[in-house]
Structures are given as structure tokens and as C-alpha cells.
Amino acid sequence: MTKQNVIVSDKKSGLNMSITMAMSKSSILTMTAQKPGGYISFSTTELLKNLEINGEGRINAWVESMRASSPTHIKSTPSLADHDRRSSWTVSHPSALDMFEQIIDASKGKQIVMFLDYDGTLSPIVDDPDKAFMSDAMRQTVRKLAGCFPTAIVSGRCRDKVHFNFVRLAELYYAGSHGMDIKGPAKGSKYKKGSRAVLFQPASEFLPMIDEVYKHLVEKTKSTPGAKVENNKFCVSVHFRRVEEKKWNELFQQVKSVLKEYPELRLTQGRKVLEIRPTIKWDKGKALEFLLESLGFANCSDVFPVYIGDDRTDEDAFKILREKGQGFGILVSKFPKETCASYSLQEPDEVRDFLQRLVQWKRPSVLGGQSKV
């Protein structure tokens, strides 16, 4: 076993991240070239694909991936290189606010359908995930948006929690547990053909197992200060927002020790969260396709889906839109990231500004009002 310096590169953003990994002679990577100074270069996609190999290298790679996808601090005085990377990235992923007129031009003659992530998109990322409340101003904006376009919230959180605790708007579609728990408005939607309410839960058989794993993880991780385990019905989230970075390795090993007894479940990673999900082929991209079909837009050329999200799990939806050549994705991030999204916004306040502009464009005189849960 040897230590090897590795550069993880992001082709789209030009980002490079140096990692020291433990590698056996067989290695967890297929290496074809080595850069000067003893560094090997490969993409973040390659890194994640190779995380399924056992050993110290796997754990180190997971922790480095956790660190890379969960930046916590913006430098008070960014370096010239940081500025150049950001500038290069925004050329490929310009601000959706700056490009608003071009976006509207592309949507003309088509039905816009809105898909919104919750944490980090409609609400800021906070230390306590139970306190990730959206502002009243954001809620009013989303309510008006739903009056103009079919609108869905697509979150990794439990659907009922997002609906009743956070968003509290009855006229939306909600897809919780990364799209594994989908429900439409109880009274139907003016955009949907037919009056039957939408309800879809493709992973129902996993509910007892998810509950069992949740209990084991609560017990297993209680020795790690700051770790919070959340039961999101069809998936379990292990938040490390309050965990000291030096404890991330320990937390990851605790989670893996529980999961090794459940081969039907898989581990994925989001923004400061490890997530345990059923191995079924379902994600936010599949949820987007299902909702478009439910709304009567399957295989339609006159639909324009817009998906806004901040997390790695939103990439499944961004990828679907890019492959279909329909609509576009908007990544919410202050940091350059590898993404399939076409545009960017930096924070929830910019998301609200963008949604307000959509509402004003569609219906300049939209009136306020109350919405019941």
C-alpha cells in the first residue's frame, strides 16, 4: 500500500483538487498518465465511480468527495486563480438573471413547467435541517409562480415535512425522498387533464427496511457530536453540517458498518449529507419525467421544463433535460461545480428574484392572497 498524490479535475469548471490517497498495487483507479510532480489527474466523475472498491483508499476518497461537494467558507480575499476559475465557469453557466430575456425567448410558444429543489434553493442551508424555513417572501413568490405555471417541489426530504412544515402551499406537486414519494394537489390541478389526484410511491416495499436502518444509524452515530439522522420515509439522511471535519471519516465508517447488512440499499452523497436509498432505478430525473407525463406533457415538443436545484442529486434532473434538449437546469451555487445545468444562480435570494421575474413576465398584475395547506 502506497500513498499517491492525486489531482481531481473538473473539466467544465477547470477546478483541481489535490488528494492524497492510499493505493494498493492493483489500485482503485486505472491510470494512464502521471502529471509532473507525481500527480495523477482524473475527473470527479471517475472518482465517484471508483468509490465502490473496499479499502482505505475508498474511505479517503469518500471523505475528500464529501469535502469537495460541501464547501463551507468563501475566502475573504479570493486569489487571482479563484477569480479566473469563477469567470471561466460563469462563461459556461451564465447567470439566469442576466440571461432572462434569452430564456424567455427560448420558451415562447411552449408551456413552462417549474421544478424546484427545497434546501439551498428555496431556503438557505442551515446547521439544523429542522429549521430550514423558507421566508414569507419566498412562499408568496412560489404561490404566485404556481398560479402561472405547473409547479413541483422535488426534494430529498420527506414529502409531508416539506409540504406541511416548510412550504405550506396546497396547489403544488410534491416529490419527496428524491422523487420516490410523489403527490399532486388534493383538489387536482388546473394544468392536469382529468381530476384524479397524483400519488406515486415506487419504493413502498422498502419502508420497513428504511425504518430499521434509521434506528440502527441513530444508535450507531450517537457517539459522533453534531451528526443528525433524519428519516425521510423512503430514504435516510445522515447530516454532517454540525460535525467537525476531522470526524467525517469516522462518521462515514459508522454509516458503512450499518449498510453492509443491507445490500438492497445504496449510499449516495449530497450537500453535507450522506443518504441511504433503495437500489431501485429512481431519482429526481425520473420524478421529473413522471410528473411531466402526469401533467400530459409526455413526448411533447411544446413543453419547457425548468429545474432549479443546488445539490448533486439534482444533477439527475439536469441531465434528463440536457439529453432531451428541452428546457434547462439552473444550478444554485456560489462555487464552480461540475454540472449538467445550463445556467446558475448564487443563492436563494437570486432564485426568488428569478421566480419573481417569471411571474411578472407571465402576469404583470398577479395579485397577492392566502393559500391553504
Automatic annotation (TrEMBL):
Transmembrane segments: none annotated. SUPFAM superfamilies: HAD-like (SSF56784). Keywords: Hydrolase, Stress response. Belongs to the trehalose phosphatase family. This is Trehalose 6-phosphate phosphatase. Removes the phosphate from trehalose 6-phosphate to produce free trehalose. Trehalose accumulation in plant may improve abiotic stress tolerance. The keyword Coiled coil does not apply. It is an enzyme of class 3 (hydrolase). It catalyses: alpha,alpha-trehalose 6-phosphate + H2O = alpha,alpha-trehalose + phosphate. InterPro entries: HAD-like_sf, HAD-SF_hydro_IIB, HAD_sf, OTSB-like, Trehalose_PPase. GO terms for biological process: trehalose biosynthetic process. Pathway: Glycan biosynthesis; trehalose biosynthesis. Its cofactor is a divalent metal cation. One of its GO terms (molecular function) is trehalose-phosphatase activity. It comes from the Eukaryota. The lineage of its organism: Eukaryota, Viridiplantae, Streptophyta, Embryophyta, Tracheophyta. Its EC number is 3.1.3.12.
